[in-house]
Amino acid sequence: MTSAIEPHKARRLYLLLRDQITSGRLPSGERLPGEPVLAAEHGLARVTVRRALDLLASEGLVHRRPGSGTFVQGPAGTRPVVGDLPNLLSGLIAMGRATGVRLLSFEYVAAPAAIAEALLLEPGERVQRSVRVRLIDGQPFSYLTTHVPERVGLSYSEADLAATPLLELMERSGIVADRGTQAIGATLAGPEVAEALDLEVGSALIDLTRVVFDPSGRGVEHLHALYRPDRYAFQMDLVRTGDAGERRWTPASARPTKPAHLSAKPASAKPETRPRPAALRRPAP
Amino acid sequence: MTSAIEPHKARRLYLLLRDQITSGRLPSGERLPGEPVLAAEHGLARVTVRRALDLLASEGLVHRRPGSGTFVQGPAGTRPVVGDLPNLLSGLIAMGRATGVRLLSFEYVAAPAAIAEALLLEPGERVQRSVRVRLIDGQPFSYLTTHVPERVGLSYSEADLAATPLLELMERSGIVADRGTQAIGATLAGPEVAEALDLEVGSALIDLTRVVFDPSGRGVEHLHALYRPDRYAFQMDLVRTGDAGERRWTPASARPTKPAHLSAKPASAKPETRPRPAALRRPAP
């Protein structure tokens, strides 16, 4: 084993531990394994482990108590917001959280092939492409890239988009969002996104793609959204339905006209008196 | 600018590009930006960019054509499976995909505090903890850690769990899974999970936590699942409901007794004749 610090391996371990702390899997107060254990587990030199712990300590995510070990301090700032998945923004507004937006770009371009196909565009039809960063309580939490057919995009201005949610603008203009398809995955932050979301390159992000159609089946919006998982967690309630042998999960959130149902609420670091939020805490790995 | 290769920076760029290729954001046939452009974009030396491209080429994810550039080849093997989120496994079975499981561990332990709280356990109540890797067509795609109260866990054996889905075992024993709460995020693969899922450490994973309750409100299962996003994408259909000013998205998948509704199907690299799957393709960044 070498005793030279390997800064990029230290960075990798730092990112992994940071991810576990900000996600709550390593809860505040938890004692981290000792340096020799971390070194063996990750195949690293002890000095490299120490460097990773130094980085965490400099961010206030761990605290070292000489003689007793390294303890998780948890992120002091923004906590994940627990929300109903498709109605994220209206959920945040309903719970009175201050949201903001930064419009990073706004332009009309030839439709990329994948977008043209997804939105069922006519050949040669152009699109409005915009990139926005959404903030909650002043902190960036999502990076949104939208493509909208030119005929829809022209119904509002760049200034409108910098102030008002896109679906609201469209619905004001008489465009009817009727149905959509949504896919969820995970991805790594590249340099541009990392900078916009105030993150390290290589951090994990929730990746959501939604395509929205009007009642005639024409595409009206293609959204690609990236979310910081340490600032937002998607939640849904499920009920188990069906006869024996055919039992399955059904979303419990199909109550469209009752705003009180919006279960979005700030997650708290304190124990809850209600059982539901506690269900979201994860075990230490 | 230095001309020395920096292997860990090369690895980071390799991971980012790999993620974009396997997710389909860099589609097969797409020409990558030239080495000078990638070098400037990521703040790296050209030799470091070349090393990252070498790694991708050695995996067959890109192809270099001398004089014309580097082209994405896309992953030849398993494609993402598009599925209904809460009923992943039954969806896969309904579409005739061969699924398998590896039971990595099975033990009875004292309940970690977060688990005891989530499942509303009695003080001192023990749990069965198991770790499984689920395979589709012989390839690992999910890493599942479950905690089940001892009274529930004793209704089946280790051999049962290595052969049969957990909820099915519980329901056979007369335990009623009545409702649940599910949260979705994203995380980075650590060494253990990366090895089990045949991935690089630091890859992005979908992170799902589900807690299941019986009709009396007692917790019967705590599931923490990690999914490879290049082998699985969660999909849901949405409909827009409600009056003007109160419009919101509602899940369209609440049709519990109709197995044909299971929209899980293999995503194809070829253009589809139906509009829906195309909606999931993402634009090049």
From TrEMBL, chains A, B:
Residues 7-75 form the HTH gntR-type domain. This is UTRA domain-containing protein. Pfam families: GntR (PF00392), UTRA (PF07702). Residues 245-285 are annotated as: Disordered. One of its GO terms (molecular function) is DNA-binding transcription factor activity. PANTHER family: MANNOSYL-D-GLYCERATE TRANSPORT/METABOLISM SYSTEM REPRESSOR MNGR-RELATED, MANNOSYL-D-GLYCERATE TRANSPORT_METABOLISM SYSTEM REPRESSOR MNGR-RELATED. The keyword Transcription applies.
